[in-house]
Amino acid sequence: MRVPTPTPSEWGKTRRLVLERLDTSEWCCPDWYDLVERGPHGFDHSSGGSVPPDTVVVVVADEAVALADALNVEPENLYAWDREYYLVLRVREVLDAELWRTLPWGEWGPGNVVHVWDKFHGFDCFRGQFPARRSLSHGGEWLHLERLVNRDYPPARLPERSDPPSPSDLLAAVRENDLARVEALLSQGVDPRDLGPPDGVRCLELGVSVARSSSPLWESIESASPAVTEALVRAGAGANAQSAGALPPLHVAVIARRPEHARVLLALGADPYARHGEKSALELAEAIDPGLAAIVRERC
Predict the structure, then answer these.
(1) Is the bond preceding residue 131 a cis peptide, omega within 30 degrees?
(2) What is the dihedral of CA 6, 11, 16, 21, to 10 degrees?
(3) What is the residue-averaged pLDDT of the chain?
(4) DSSP letter for each residue of 169-203
(5) What distances in angstroms separate CA 52 from CA 48, 49, 211, 260, 266, one per listed residue?
(6) Rounded-to-integer distance, Cα 53 and Cα 49, Å
(7) CB 300 within 8 A of CB 282
(8) What long-range pairs does 24-33 form, CB within 8 A, spacing at least 24?
(9) What is the torsional sign of CA 102, 103, 104, 108?
(10) How does strand 27-28 pair with strand 20-21?
(11) 197 falls in which pLDDT band (50, 70, 90)?
(12) Which of 147, 202, 197 is CA-nearest to residue 168?
């Protein structure tokens, strides 16, 4: 359908997002600032620096293909001590199904996030052209970002299709101490081992952030419940798992003074005599906390 003039009142304040195909056959989008208005604190990359319209009309060759929401979100970076500033595009309604299927977004529909602009780093990503298994700049894949967006801005319709879960979803669930979600992700085959950041954490590639721990097991010992730690170890995270230069899990439990986590690790095979640097976990416990040392000694 042609874009109606004037647009229907129920659309509210609208902006057009005109998609164009380049000579390379790739599609390109307008810049994020072409879709928003100046915010109350000026015009910048922060959420307060821009006001999205009520409705984005996706246009191809003067045809209205879909209606969408433009939403400001600031996801915490999963693999760096940082926060990202995004404008995301979420489908609200497909108006021309045939033309929609020709777009990179064609396999997704209402409730799905299909485009992201990283306003600080100055790039944007098409869902469909940007591989599902390559992370976005906040460290999570499309599914993780979509879950955050739909939690903060509930859509009129829940998405019917999405991508498979990934290690970044597991890491986020551990940080949220969400045992039910951790168990659900593990049951779906998400690998609990310390795999490090996925390929394509672009904020790290650009060198603007400080890397943070990326191990679900390490994070569970630091900030989640012992039940989360147990679920990860039983799913294959490894009670003695240790990446290059990192502390073994039992050392982490001792240093963090997490006695119940230490009990779980020891019950599932953690070695109290395993050394990191000059000290075993037992020696470290004896130097830090007599109560913890007694717990570790029970398994010796």
Answers:
(1) no
(2) -110
(3) 88
(4) HHHHHHHTT-HHHHHHHHHTT---S---SPTT-HH
(5) 10, 10, 31, 47, 52
(6) 13
(7) yes
(8) 26/129, 27/103, 27/104, 27/126, 27/129, 29/115, 29/117, 29/124, 29/126, 31/117, 31/124, 32/87, 32/117, 32/119, 32/124
(9) negative
(10) antiparallel
(11) low
(12) 197
How does pLDDT run across 47-87, given as a tens digit for each residue? 788 899 999 999 998 899 999 999 999 999 888 888 899 99
If you search the block for the tokens 């029970």, which residue do you land on? 298
Exposure string for 262-296, b = 16+ CB within 10 A, e = fewer:
bbbbbebebbbebebeeebbbbbbbeebeebbebb
Cβ(292)–Cβ(250) below 8 Å: no
What DSSP assignment string belongs to the chain? -BPPSSPPGGG-SEEEEE-EE-TTS-EE---GGGS-EEBTTBSSSSGGGEE--SEEEEEETTEEEEEEEEEEE-PBPSSBS-B--EEEEEEEEES-HHHHTTSTTTT--TT-EEEEEETTTTEEEEBTTB-TTS--TTS--HHHHHHHHHHHS--SS--S--PPP-HHHHHHHHHTT-HHHHHHHHHTT---S---SPTT-HHHHTT-S-B----HHHHHHHHS-HHHHHHHIIIII-TT---TTPPPHHHHHHHTT-HHHHHHHHHTT--TT-EETTEEHHHHHHHH-HHHHHHHHTT-
pLDDT in tens, 234-245: 999 999 987 655
39-43, 107-111, 114-118, 260-264, range with the lowest pLDDT: 39-43
Token pair for residue 232? 């990860």
- Length of the chain measured in residues: 300
Give the up-direction half-sphere exposure of residue 247: CA atoms within 13 A in the CB hemisphere.
20
As given in the structure block, the two tokens for residue 130 are 């940007």
